[in-house]
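Handout, tutorial session.
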Amino acid sequence: MAGSIDRIGSTFPVNEFVAARLREAADLLAAQQDNPFRAAAYRRASDAVASLDHSVDELLKQGGVEALDRIPHVGKGIAGAVAQMVAMGKWPYLQRLRGSSEPEDVFCAIPGVGPKLAKRLHEELKVATLEQLEAALADPKSPAPKGVGKRRASMIRSGLRQLLDRVRPRRSATQVEPSVETLLDIDREYREKAALDVLPRIAPKRFNPESKAWLPVFHTNRGPWHFTALHSNTSRAHELGRVWDWVVIYFHDDDHGEGQRTIVTETRGPLLDCRVVRGREAECLTLRETTKAPAR
């Protein structure tokens, strides 16, 4: 558990750590014009965690994410978030709401993975979540990152598996994602609303020395899924001059872990100049051929 948790003075420091971050998420969601019921849900969960007479860390150790799900006002989705905070010392979703997240940040929670290796894993394997990294490392066709031999790759897989066992429900080991059609439609709606300047803007902490609120953020629901879309304020996007082209869409529902995909304008191949979901290009091509129109 991260040292930042231990510095909070309370009978149960981890509970105060979790409750404070749930409250902050509620405040940010309200400021970013998300559904008020979501913000209210986080506030209720924060109060419930703060009032517990036992540690959420112990609950997680004894009963997994399912035990956290049984806390009053803490449903499946928030239980997964609490598990991330306890196991990793951070909550990637909150970092995104703050505008302070790099895709590879989450990989540093894996034992033996530092910032440099985390960046290589993200850029070379083209993955951004723990579940995507797990799938890439298990794929025999996926090339190993530079400088990572078989022994180190095995250690990373072992540490990753242990971490995932702590932060995801046992019944939801397989990652499920929204359709590419849904992701592309959210990308379209986000870019249209951003161009009309009708979305709230946040002041990201990275690459923003003047602390200006310039990054449009969009929250929406489609069926059981909740989505957050933003332009990519990552070091890679800035290096390549793609901040305004790349759109990162984060998604989660109550039954599956959080996921994310980046939508870009393709620069080569049969989908040239079309909007595509990185890592799911084959599905985008099928969609285009089925609809007889470019997925733009």
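The second record follows below. Compare its token runs with those of the first.
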Amino acid sequence: MKRGLFTVTSNEQLAPGTFRMVLAGDTTAITAPGQFVNIALEGKFLRRPISVCDWGEGSLTIVYKVVGQGTEQMSRMAPGTRLDILTGLGNGYDLDKSGDRPLLIGGGAGIPPMFALAKKLLAQGKTPSVILGFNQAAEQFMQADFQALGLDVTVTTADGSLGVKGFVTDAVPQTGYTYVYTCGPAPMLKAVYDKSVTSGQFSFEERMGCGFGACMGCTCQTKYGNKRICREGPVLEKEEILW
């Protein structure tokens, strides 16, 4: 974990209530896709945990949804705004277990970390495919970003207004993939758990107090004992998950 000051370089709306923010700062503490950052906001007691969408030397990209006062405050931030951010939080995805044809499944706010993961897998010579889930076409974001990487991308919408009608599990093939990586709301993760035929890694969303394991507020039970989503997670192995 590392604390640093970051400067907003851009903050654009991707879809209603969804924004992409790019920041300049020290990203050396970020070591794996699936990790998150914790952002201090003026007037707010608790920091806001946001998954890492992408990072490079001196550059951090996050994609966030406006769900409360904190993220609404973020949506109004102009370039040049300075933010106090904790980076390198959580355990990210383990790429060594992916096999040659991993399947990446993201739903809603769980989509951004799939982007950094896809880039890292491609750099290793793997051939990932991607399923993105939304409620309706108007909520779609980042499909073009994944396609620009040359990936096979399937979009699902609950109302059928774009792509496959239904949920992400309606697009999961019966065969042809070697591993599953996924992030999204708990009901989606449970459905992917039940539908997938391989092992995998699941990134969980949870309310966090400190974000680095001190407060124990995000503890969950696993087959191997209690784990803190912010510290031992947010990524858990399929075989250890208890529903």
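Points raised in discussion: The chain has a mean pLDDT of 93.
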